Amino acid sequence: MMSHPLRTHIESVSKLTDEEFDYILSHFTTVKLKKHSSLVREGDLVKHEYFVLKGCLRSYVTDNTGKEFTYQFAAETWWISEREAFMKHIPASTAIECLEDCQLLALSYEDRAKLGREIWKYEHYLAVKSNMGYVALQKRLQLMIMGSAKERFENFVHQYPHLYNRIPKTHIASYLGVSRETISRLYRK
Amino acid sequence: MMSHPLRTHIESVSKLTDEEFDYILSHFTTVKLKKHSSLVREGDLVKHEYFVLKGCLRSYVTDNTGKEFTYQFAAETWWISEREAFMKHIPASTAIECLEDCQLLALSYEDRAKLGREIWKYEHYLAVKSNMGYVALQKRLQLMIMGSAKERFENFVHQYPHLYNRIPKTHIASYLGVSRETISRLYRK
DNA sequence: ATTTTTAAGTGACAAATGTCCTTTCACCAG
DNA sequence: CTGGTGAAAGGACATTTGTCACTTAAAAAT
Q: Nearest residue on chain B to A174, judged by CA atoms?
């Protein structure tokens, strides 16, 4: 029988008993959203973080000239939120939108803290996840500084082959920090 | 009377009693290094993290074509180490060198964990520091993707006016992800 | 003080990438 | 099926940035 995707994800860090997982899961609520709808708008207070069961989203910021920078994508089994706003209870500076119809599990700030306190393995899972996020961010910055547009693009395709055919090129471009046209030119060859 | 720089730094997060600070400080050892010497070489195991009392350092990686990317600078009251190697006990992929004669306070992995366990405020200080590091990294990535060389340079000068006249331009360039010549051109105007 | 070494500034040119505009293609609603 | 809408491709040209070669200035060593 199929294990729950969230359980699988947590257990990639540490195993849980059935009771523990059921208890954890009981703190989440399900959210469904249509394609193109917003999960978070700039200026919102962000009370939850989300685990993606189905669909695909992106978080992004818009600069004063209207240009967008995609900060993160999230598809099945990824977490997404506006970290700074969620952690510090300040208005979001990053928006999150659905690129497809989505089904998410939402966990509130309070319940997150509660689970962390009550279930040591969950706390550990969060710490590991946070550290991996930091390292990934480092790698992305390094590639951004040392790599050409081509290298960054190839790295993206290699790292996320499933996203590459699922997400509009415009957004991939804004994630990589290049124009959409440059992406086109790259795989012409 | 003058407070210790490390104490000042920790107390920007939470106040300590004299006893607490003395106890914390007793776990550090002093390290002195000459200009141009290496604190960490690629491949080293990294047993300590360092608080800068005097001098200036940089951490950097070198790519296969010999080009360098400066990952971080650290001057007085900054921490520096090779985070991933230090945390995971793996060989360093980033080197650290002194740009000036340096005087550092070194804290071992074990003592760091010990202090975290014994002094709740120290643990908290580490958590806050880590989170600030994450947010700073986000900002840097965003500027890297959205900003021109000029914007990145101006941001650097504005953010670190003291470093700008203290560090060779070559290194500032490798921190910003541009060539040294581009830096020259920028402040010609 | 003099030499030697290292960092920085400069100009000319090449390469990468951005911008703008037009065309093509795929998909969806009616 | 059809018209419309949005995404992607492609070409032409502008701009930014990199590269290389050389000069100048500053700093370190003797």
A: B145
Q: Is residue B112 part of a domain?
A: yes
Residue B15: partners with Cβ closer than 8 Å, 6 or more residues away = B121
- CB-CB contact of A109 with A81 (8 Å): no
Write down the H helix ranges in chain B: 5-11, 18-25, 83-88, 109-118, 120-146, 149-159, 161-164, 169-176, 180-188
Closest protein CA to C1' of nucleotide D6, residue: A168
Helix (H, G, I), strand (E, B) or coil at A112: helix
- pLDDT tens sequence across B91-108: 999 999 999 999 999 999
User: Is the pLDDT assigned to residue A189 strictly greater than 70?
Assistant: no
Q: Which of B128, B141, B179, B182 is best to mutate for the A interface (most A CBs within 10 A)?
A: B141
User: For B71, which residue in chain A has the nearest alpha carbon?
Assistant: A142
Domain limits at B70? Answer: 5-119
Distance of C1' in D8 from CA in A169, Å: 8
Residue B124 covered by a domain: no
Query: Given CA atoms A85, B15, B133, B178 in this order, what sign does their dihedral have?
Result: positive
Q: Does A146 touch chain B (CB under 8 A)?
A: yes
Q: What is the mean pLDDT of each run of 10 residues along chain B (189 residues)?
A: 93 96 98 94 96 96 89 96 94 96 97 94 91 92 95 95 94 96 86
Within a domain: B163:
no
Q: Which nucleotide is nearest to A148 (CA to C1')?
A: C16
Which CA-bearing residue is nearest the C1' of C18?
Answer: A179
Counting one residue from chain A and one from chain B, the pairs whose CB atoms sit within 8 A come to 52
| Smallest CA–C1' separation from B168, nucleotide | C7
B70 assigned to some structural domain: yes
- Pair B144, A144: CB distance under 8 Å: yes
